[in-house]
Amino acid sequence: MKRTLEKVTGTLGGKAAPEKKGKLRVALCIAGQMRGYEKAAPSVLKNLIEPLDADVFIHTWSDIGSSINEHRRTLPVPFPEYIPGKIQHKRPQFDAMFPAYSASISESGKVDCNRLETLYNPVAAVIEDSPAPEDFDDFFGFSVPEKLLNAEIKSQWSRQLFYKIWKCNELKKAAELKGGFTYDLVIRLRPDLSIGNPIPESHLNDLEKIHFRIRNIDANFQMSDQYFYGGSPQMDIACDTFRNIPDLWKEYDQGSRHHKYYCAEGLLCTSVKRSGNFEIAPFRTEKASEKNTCLLLSHGQKRFSYLEAKDALLSDIKSISGAQKDRITLALGRTLAAYVVAATAKNKDAGELANLVLEYETETGAPADFANSILSFAKEDLEQAREHAKKALAQEPNSTAILTHLAKVARKQGLPDDAVKFATRAIELPDEYKRQNRPSKWVLFDTLGYAQEDLNNYEEAFTAYMASFSLNPGRAASAYRTGKMLYRLGKYDQSLWFLRQAQILDPDHHAAAYIEAHCLCKVGMYLDAQAITLKFAGTTLEVGGRKTKFLGPLAILQFKRGIKAAAEKTIDAYLATGATHEDEVVELTKLLVSLNRVSDAKTLAKRGLAAHPNSRFVQRGLDWLIN
């Protein structure tokens, strides 16, 4: 079944690794399906092969486009989540249900030996014919426990993954044996990944451990299997995971440990920790909520949009019957709704979106209630938006997406109690897609916080915003809202931490700086408050619906420091803007009273109450003056 790249390597030991005096010997092991490698190769050359003068080893399958998961990864979101697992993760069954779609994504072609040589000039490379899924057990020499398949059907692909990693490392070991040396650094890389940055110098000086980039995994029990590197002895242990799988799976089958320890990233981490006496060190190049600057981007599969996938899927739906047809039709309707959400946010033509909805309803004979609700919401037809959303919810009563949308509609309608009800119900539901870590849950807590704030329930709003921040600590808006609620609750020291965190995450978050200045005045830190007002003296921001500068906190600061004449001039400038910031109008009204400008104080108080008629914060602070 195997064939060696005669033109590239001769036999396994055909090409000797070149001698490299006075610098690190580096091996780059590229293992797995070669899909997308043409797009990934330039960045791999630029950031790994050329700067490190790396020797390249390749172990791959003969078919470029035979990824079992390709179909699932190309489907527009959330369509895949509606497909039963036994169909979603088994390509033959998927192809039978969705023949038109499968034909539209199929890639034929074999790995080109000459192209591999041109791109990578490998020391050694092996291409194997891809086994048929029904031959996996014989090919790999062991099967997946039924208990593990039932817990995580994707576990069946772990064998292919770690088999290739192991065999590629064996090529590296053969080169070491033949040349009588040991590589200083060995890098494991999946073929379709672009690399945005070179390996940090600090890592190159610390090769007695394995370094792996962490993103969207739990480093306590998982280790990235796509890109990791370390010294040759340590990498030998990590790349031997394939040979440990039978014992580890037997352990799972007979034990009670969670299945995540025995699948993909968890399997690698468990194997390494059991076999090696060295540290595995996760590193992160950006915060979880920030743009991926490391650029470990996969070119192996492209996620299609609703527009790109709809024709094939509409065709396939017509040939499906029974309960499955209803489920798949609903899946496409929800996918249409997701597309409409994104399109309306980008101000796409409403007429074109309406035509898409009409096409779906005509072709499937089913209503597109959720998509229609989103279109009505965009047109500010809130009654229609609510009615359509309720019909959609009747079809999917446990849909967090629809409940979140209903909460937004209710807020827009001025019904905060309903918004709280919908948001709370969505939060209490398990994730409809059964994800372990529900990445969008912070949106629900934000929505709940807005509604509680509308109701002047600042304690409850703080609790919601704090939950949002805990789930997404890299998001400046969550830190800001948490700090703002603490300010309103009079917890100024705690508020300062969150407001400063918001500015660390977003240096241009002037609203956070604005309230921080007020906070600092509250706790008597006048010099720090002065530094902020001077820093942003020329900054214009929108406060209370009007453009203003950092005049409010500056007036308070000047008064607190006894510079009353300057405070009077500043507050006059503030009054001229017509601004009535909810979080400072009370303080400025008190300041005017202290300056014996009671008439101006009453004018500002009336303006504040008119601008914020439902704000308990403003009413409590100003009623005494008006009444």
Question: How would you explain this protein's 3D organization?
Answer:
The protein is of the alpha/beta class and 627 residues long. Among the domains are: 26-66 and 107-285, Spore Coat Polysaccharide Biosynthesis Protein SpsA, Chain A (Alpha-Beta Complex); 67-105 and 303-319, no CATH class; 320-388, no CATH class; 540-626, Alpha Horseshoe (Serine Threonine Protein Phosphatase 5, Tetratricopeptide repeat). α2 links the parallel β2 and β3 (55-61). The protein is globular, with a radius of gyration of 30 Å.
Provide the fold topology.
Elements (H helix, E strand, L loop, with lengths): L1 E3 L1 H4 L16 E6 L5 H16 L2 E7 L8 H5 L10 H4 L2 H7 L1 H7 L7 H8 L3 E5 L7 H5 L5 H6 L6 H22 L5 E5 L3 E2 L6 H4 L5 E4 L13 E4 L1 H8 L1 H14 L9 H12 L4 E4 L13 E2 L7 H12 L4 H24 L4 H15 L4 H10 L3 H14 L4 H13 L3 H13 L12 H14 L3 H14 L4 H13 L3 H14 L4 H13 L3 H10 L5 E3 L2 E3 L2 H10 L3 H14 L7 H10 L3 H14 L4 H11 L1
Parallel strand pairs: 2-3, 2-5, 3-4, 7-9
Antiparallel strand pairs: 1-4, 5-8, 6-10, 7-8, 11-12
Helix pairs in contact: 5-6, 6-15, 10-13, 13-14, 15-16, 16-17, 16-18, 18-19, 19-20, 20-21, 20-22, 21-22, 22-23, 23-24, 24-25, 24-26, 25-26, 26-27, 26-28, 27-28, 28-29, 28-30, 30-31, 31-32
